[in-house]
Amino acid sequence: MKTSRNGEEETVPRRTTLPIGIQDFAKLVQKNCIYVDKTQYVHNLLQGGGIYFLSRPRRFGKSLLISILKEIFSGNKELFKGCWIYDHMERWGKYPVIHLDFLGVDFKSFGLEKALMKKLDSIAKQHGVEAEGESCKEKFGNLIQNLSAKEDKRVVVLIDEYDKPIIDYFETENMKIAEENRKKLKNFYAELKSRDENIEFLFITGVSRFTKVSIFSDLNNLDDITLDPNYAMMFGYTRRELEDYFAFHIDKWIQEKNITKSELMERFKEEYDGYSWDGKNFVYNPDSMHKSFKEQSFANHWFSTGTPTFLVKALLDKGIDIADFENLRVKKEFFNEYDINDINLLLFQTGYLTVKESDETGYRLYYPNKEVQSSLLHLLLKKYSRKNQLRVEEITPKIKTALSGGNIDSFVEIVRTLLADIPYNLSLSKYEAFYHSIIFIAVKLSGLDVAVERETNRGRIDMLVRTERYIYIIEFKMGSADEALAQIQEKKYYEPFLSEGKEILMVGIGFNREDRNIVQFKCVKFE
To answer: Which of 33, 88, 504, 521 has the least CB density, counted as fewest CB within 10 Å?
Structure first.
């Protein structure tokens, strides 16, 4: 099979084994698994300054990249036969490699300092050197220096999941531990700067981008390529790569499921495409694609591998209105800030929001695709409303039926059911965001066209819902439904929609502070 990249003809090996769960490059080659060749990007890294940081969400191939770098610097050229880099790398030198993977650092059992010292001792033993020191920082520095002296070469340092001791403690009750570990890691990583003369190449990767100010401030020569457009497609798959490397699985799916290639690829795009770190180049989630091909299903594969409980808890604790994510714009500086309490930043870094557009002023963030949006909203509705998954799945179709049929009474009754289990101890300051979120998520999951804070020339509509026949203009008030309805009529929120040829229903909904539910509603058809 021939493909073309940057005008050059290449051969894509006819491999069919899916690389599910494999993060070791040598094992991937030995098992003859599909590898989507990203080594041209790796080659570009090797031509640069040699001190890099990059963050990506979980299961996006970060550990595989670390493994690839390890094999390259170990001089294992033959592993890369058939890859772009095999014929383009001028020198395949062999260097001593320190591979520090925080997945293998048992900081929960021993504490971060002691666990790191044990890990560094293990690495030193593998290389046959001493790593003396009273602290993990001192031990790390001596490991680098002693290994460099023994091999008479500068060393390569590869750090994977650098932030795991922080993000594993993101829940509110453990935030103190997260902050303590951040300070310890900042001190630990500072040793890399003082050992610069002994380091040939440094690559650090993880989920979060708490880098410049909070953790790597002393390592001021670190090149952060997280948002660099030159590396925007180093992780994840393009459509062209899917069609080239997974042709066997695409053809098999088409034949067995009696579907056209066009239909299949469009469904893939809707479910798993959409991740971007520059707002221009978009990629498919690799983990979801592998499992989708294996099972020939469009399940929520990536989402199911790690339920973001700390994110859901943070949304609940902070009283965040999930509808705010429908039009979330951030400034360029947003990504350089350090705030482990910033829920927008956490959602971006963990892969639940991505860059959809960018310009000179900043970025627009949104859910990457249907898999992420649908999964997260279902989970949030279940947690917010305290209903089980079965009840949630029963409720959302009923909402669509009610609104599609103009039955506002039925819609309000469903919403009342959802709001009935709001925690009694929820503060009133968080309550409004709470009920807005529940109503918005329920309507969104029903599949209807819903918008919040829709701007008109006279103000903002709380919620706008479109069906085939109706346009609903809904206003919420803490108190009187009459007051809510009067605002719609007074500000003529209906005017922008008069030419659409649909019935316009103006709905005022009143909430009660004591009952914490809808106590009154009024619906008036625009004549």
So the answer is: 88
8-39 in b/e form (b: 16+ CB < 10 A) is: eebebeebeebbeebbbbeebbeeebbbbbbb
Contact 84, 68 (CB under 8 A): no
Pairing mode, strands 97-101 and 155-160: parallel
Are the CB atoms for 368 and 274 separated by under 8 Å?
Answer: yes
pLDDT means over runs of 10, the chain (527 residues): 43 81 96 97 93 93 97 97 95 95 95 96 96 95 97 97 88 82 93 94 90 74 91 97 97 95 97 95 96 95 75 76 87 76 85 92 93 90 81 90 97 90 64 81 94 86 95 92 94 94 95 84 93
Report CA Rg, the chain.
Answer: 27
SS3 477: strand
Class of domain 36-231: alpha beta
Contact 485, 506 (CB under 8 A): yes
CB 83 within 8 A of CB 39: yes
Q: How far apart are CA 67 and CA 158, in angstroms?
A: 9
Q: Residue 240 in contact with residue 251, Cβ under 8 Å? A: no
What stretch of H or E contains 445?
helix 428-445
pTM over 0.85: yes
Residue 436 near residue 321, CB atoms below 8 Å: yes
Ordered strands of the 328-331 beta sheet? 328-331, 362-366, 354-358
Cα dist. 54→51, 166, 256, 419 in Å? Answer: 11, 16, 40, 42
Where exactly are the structural domains of the chain? 36-231, 385-525
Residues 156, 94 contacting (CB under 8 angstroms): no
| Interatomic CA distance for residues 357 and 412, integer angstroms | 36
d(CA 426, CA 191): 46
Name every residue whose Cβ is closer than 8 Å to that of residue 63 and which is 6 or more positions away in sequence. 23, 101, 103, 160, 161
Task: Put residue 128 in one of left, alpha, beta given phi > 0 → left and psi -120 to 50 → alpha.
Answer: left
Q: Residue 354 phi/psi, 5° resolution? A: -145, 170
CA dist list (Å): 397 to 63, 187, 446: 41, 53, 6
